[in-house]
Design a protein that fits this description.
With about 140 residues, this protein is an alpha+beta fold. Helices cover about 35% and strands about 25% of the residues. The chain has a single domain, classed as Transposase IS200-like (Alpha-Beta Plaits, 2-Layer Sandwich), CATH 3.30.70. The strands form two sheets. A four-stranded antiparallel beta sheet has the order 4-5-3-6. The protein is globular.
Amino acid sequence: MKLQNPDKQYKTTHSMVYSCQYHIIFCPKYRRAVFEEPIAERMKQLIIERQAEYGYSIIEMEVMPDHVHLLLDVNPHIGVHSVIAKIKGYTARTLRKEFPALKSRLPSLWTRSKFISTVGAVSLETVKQYIVDQKGV
């Protein structure tokens, strides 16, 4: 089998070769602007530290005051929905324990909603640049 884009980074397991990138956006409950420093920095650390365990790798990430942008490469065997659920569950538990003010501001940290888009209609570089540009808005 000849790969159409030899420059693209592919991942492998013992039984598959894949490249599945997703642009993901999710928001705190009521879209409250709770991700100011130091909470935003801790959020980034928590997402980074679970990459191997949850089966994803971060291509780009931006934590805005009222939402989170992720560009992830996800193992298709695990699935993007499962990965997002794990990230949201882990970050909610940890952040609410470390920052008790979050408990009083929000009944639960995350909404059940999320935006998921595969990267393909536009280039990976375009999505990366969009995420970086969000910080300047």
